[in-house]
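Render this sequence as a predicted structure.
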Amino acid sequence: MRSSILIAIPCALSLALVAPAALAAGPKKQPTKEEMQEAQRRYQRGRELYEDNDFTAALVEIRRAYELAPSYKLLFDIGQICYQLPDYPCALRSFKQYLDEGAGEINPQRRAEVENDVRKLEGRVATLKITTTRPGVEILVDDVVVGKTPLDTPVLVGAGKRKVTARVQGAEPVTRVIEVAGTDVVDVALEVGAGSTAAAPSASDGTNGPGAGPAGEDKGAGRHVPVVPWVITGALAVGTGIVGGLALAKSSEYRSQLDTFGATRATLDASYGTMKNLAIATDVLLGATAVAGVTSLILTLTAGPKGPAKAALVPVHAGVGPGSVWIKGTF
């Protein structure tokens, strides 16, 4: 590829500016004097940026010059900059447009060079045929708007992973990420609508939708959370806290009575008995709370999706024994 577009054709814009009659003969409107002067400034700035290897900024300036004073010669410059970026689809489009608009004015040697570049670039781009289930949908490729459906022409993209997004007001955006190689022609069908998702990707495009599952499965459905078991668990936890607090208070009272002179045996026995009973009750409630919590968790995890269909409950057996808590079931 040529090392410098603006060395190759340094007078591209100046030739266009001194020959307004040639522009008037074409389909594009003839630029005003002010527009040609602004285009000349843009062109010069683009040359400077290109020589500084700032290809992105150079492309913006040369494109702006072309919009102000259209000349097929500038399309050659644009194609060269796109090639350097590298943006092969842009380079291919620009070179083809250069050949079309230049027609017989391009000398045979230059035409042969550009046609050779076009053949090379055609092997480095893929073609996306993007369709949607409804018209007027805005299409973005790699977050850049390319138009609204139905698109007039297929979209050229560089090889690699490409993100295609369809968006329309009132519906969720639909996105597909596909991987393409040079010369690929890929049909991208996007289903756009309320609550819709992208059409299932084919095995050839190497993509999998997020959360892919069996056909007909409602991924948006949530689980049915069993409320009653969790309410019982919460009540048992509260009861455990209350009884445990009473047991601690009684234990403190019993120790205080032991240190009190003149406390009778009957008083000590009564206080100790109450403390022991509260401690046992705390242990039982704590065990029951643990069992209820585990049972509630299992019922939640095994519950089916919300809706009329009910998931079968897993049989669970739980109990509390002396110094132990047990739970039995099939998981």
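Summary. The CA atoms of residues 92 and 118 lie 6 Å apart. The beta strands are 125-132, 138-141, 144-148, 155-158, 160-167, 174-180, 185-190, 316-321, 324-329.
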